[in-house]
Amino acid sequence: MTPTHFSFTTAFILGLMGLAFHRTHLLSALLCLEGMMLSLYIALSLWTLQLETTCYSTAPMLLLAFSACEASAGLALLVATARTHGTDHLKNLNLLQC
Amino acid sequence: MNPYVIMILISSLGLGTTLTFASSHWLLAWMGLEINTLAILPLMAQQHHPRAVEATTKYFLTQATAAAMILFASTTNAWIMGQWDINQMSHPITTTLVMTALALKIGLAPMHFWLPEVLQGLELTTGLILSTWQKLAPFALIIQIAPNVNHSLLMTLGLLSTFIGGWGGLNQTQLRKIMAYSSIAHLGWMIIVLQTMPTLTLLALITYIFMTTSTFLMLKLNQTTKITTLSSAWTKTPLAATLLSLTLLSLGGLPPLTGFMPKWLILQELTKQHLPLTATIIAISALLSLYFYLRLCYAMTLTISPSTNNSSAPWRLKNTQSTLLLATSTVLATSLLPLTPTTLAMLL
Amino acid sequence: MTYLMSLFLIGLIVGMVAVASNPAPYFAALGLVVSAGVGCGILAGHGGSFLSLILFLIYLGGMLVVFAYSAALAAEPYPEAWGGWSVIVYMLVYMTGVVVAGACMWGGWYEGFWVMESFKEFMVVRGDTSGAAFMYSFGGGMLVISAWVLLLTLFVVLELTRGLSRGTLRAV
Q: Angle CA(B3)–CA(B4)–CA(B9) in degrees, nearest 5?
């Protein structure tokens, strides 16, 4: 395991833990998702750079396009949640609990 | 919603699942899953009431997390093994991670908490899409990576799912939540037999899709989402109420109906593989599920006259829904058991 | 160069800890900016100047402006920074976890290469720059799919944020 491998793995796991364990704002959850996507972008680009495979260096760009789509859908949901629930606190999303 | 927008969204749902089906590369499979998730979001939040938006938000968060985990695992696999192919993923850490992420995506037991809440916030047609079509793409990936996944992980996921699906549904009065727990239990049955006989998983998935389609469409026909309104369904459409109770018993897996076929074959396969304890445990856990299906049947058909009825009779309006798909899926969901040898010959 | 790259890698992890330790969204966005900037440095150090530029322009330039805007919309009156009690506890726990994990891996670490030699192959264009050209020439299907997804996202966003008159009472 190289130090680069270790650091982006750690970055991804940190983002995942932050998303999973404690969020007060929906926006913070979206930021954690973006952090996970950022570490994936770095991982994919470093993989192509290390192996010098030209055809794979399109993969990080496609990933970035998709993560932009995901982020904008998340922000649209943030707006919709702020409209219906009045706030973006995740603890207010409790209408459907068993 | 504008019909053009609906057309774009529905075709993107098809595109996403087709991409995941057709891909042998993890990146393309991930893209298909993302397209699927993005395309169903506006369909879920169609009504814009708070519960729909909340369900959409929860669905988006879980699905985005699961997709990111899938891509992370495949990238790690590429770093370690240098492989991007789906069916060549062989490193134990990455296969475990991918299986966990896919279990989160379809709602298997320790990762199932989002499913009842999300399904409760949707209307019945979108709930039908969510519990049938959206499961296909993750299942295509699961079946491809299954030979390399840790055996005890799959067994744990399957057994936990059947039990939690049974237990969770016991205390519910909301039909969509009951359907969500029934989905969890059925997915558990599919996961149990995944490594020994993947064709049985496929068979169980197909029959589950028929039965769920029939049930959701029948609930939509009666416009019921609670047990109390279900108990007066016989005044509106008596024949459909009878057929709905038969479909529910088929979901529970009683013998002359379709739902018995996958359970029977899965139990037979497990005993063939010298796993009698597992077979016994999941057979017992099916009883838990059967209890709430039976309670629904009781509320629906066994409380009609001559016994006194507690619920007030609703207003009867003329029904204008198209029932072609409902008729087909109900026939398939109730009377497919005699075709078991043919089906097996087709699948094997 | 090795020291600089180690600093960048540590900066990536620290930035993600700052995002994950649940501060107010203002500060989480700041942590994400730090991570993204440091990530640009890592990619540039490995010789991927074009990918680094894309990350800088699209990620920092586009996405984080939007996030800053939404953070300003959805903010609380007293935002909680990293000095806050719960946040600092989470940060300490996460940093300890990272250090322990790093210590467990310490024996197994081997020195990867930090900087690509520029003269490994005498190429006219670098690998990552020609990757973009590759996407336009041979990767047509992927390009079409990405364009379709971007169009789809436009519709998704428009449909999700509709309903001005619907919903409950709100201030905006």
A: 95
Interface check B103 vs C, CB under 8 A: no
DSSP code of residue C109: -
Residue B335 has pLDDT above 80, yes or no: yes
Q: Are residues C102 and C129 in the same domain?
A: no
Given CB atoms, is B67 within the 8 Å cutoff of chain C?
A: no
Q: How confident is the model at residue C119 (pLDDT cuts 50, 70, 90)?
A: very low
Contact between chains at B60 and A63 (C-beta distance less than 8 A): no
Verify whether the Cβ–Cβ distance A49 to C20 is below 8 Å: no
In a domain, C111, yes or no: no
Domain span at residue C149?
125-171
Chain B contact set for A74 (CB, 8 A): 60, 64
C162, closest residue in chain A (CA to CA): A80
Give the integer Cα–Cα distance in Å for B16 and C152. Answer: 12
User: Are C160 and C95 found together in one domain?
Assistant: no
Cβ within 8 Å, pair B9-C155: yes
CB pairs under 8 A between B and C: 44
Confidence check: pLDDT of C29 > 90 = no
Taking alpha carbons only, the member of B125, B130, B126 closest to residue B106 is B130
Neighbour subunits, C (≥3 Cβ pairs < 8 A): A, B
Tell me if ipTM is over 0.90. Answer: yes
- CA of B68, closest CA in chain A: separation in Å? 7
**Containing structural domain, residue A51:** 24-89
Residue C70 and residue C142 in one domain: no
pLDDT in tens, B129-179: 999 999 999 999 999 999 999 999 999 999 999 999 999 999 899 999 999
- Whether A98 has its CB under 8 Å from any CB of chain B: the answer is yes
Chain C neighbors of A69, CB-CB under 8 A: 149-150, 152-153
Residue A38: closest C-alpha in chain C: C36
Phi (first) and psi of residue B84, to 5 degrees:
-110, -5
Statement to judge: residues C138 and C86 lie in one domain = no
Banded model confidence at residue C103, pLDDT cuts 50, 70, 90 = confident
A66 interface with B at CB cutoff 8 Å: yes
Residue C119 lies in a domain: no
Q: Which tokens is A97 given? A: 């609990």
Q: What is the pTM of this model?
A: 0.93
Report the pLDDT value the prediction gives residue C172, as an integer from 0 to 100. 46
The angle that helices B324-334 and B238-252 make with each other, rounded to 10 degrees, is 40
How far does the CA of residue B170 sit from the closest CA of chain A (Å)?
A: 12
Residue A94 lies in a domain: no
Nearest chain A CA: its distance from C83 CA (Å): 17
Q: Is A18 among the domain residues?
A: no
Mark whether C11 and C91 lie in a shared domain: yes
Would you list the domain boundaries of chain B? 1-123, 150-307+323-347
Q: Give the Cα separation of B225 and B120 in Å (integer).
A: 9
Domain count, chain A: 1
Asked if A27's CB is within 8 angstroms of C74's CB, the reply is: yes
Residue A60's domain is classified under what CATH number? 1.10.287.3510
Residue A97 lies in a domain: no
Number of domain units in chain C: 2
Q: Is there a contact between B177 and B120 (Cβ–Cβ < 8 Å)?
A: yes
Domain boundary among the residues C60, C76, C106 is at C106
Residue C84 shares a structural domain with residue C54? yes
* Nearby residues of B299 by Cβ (< 8 Å), 6 or more positions away: B227, B230, B231
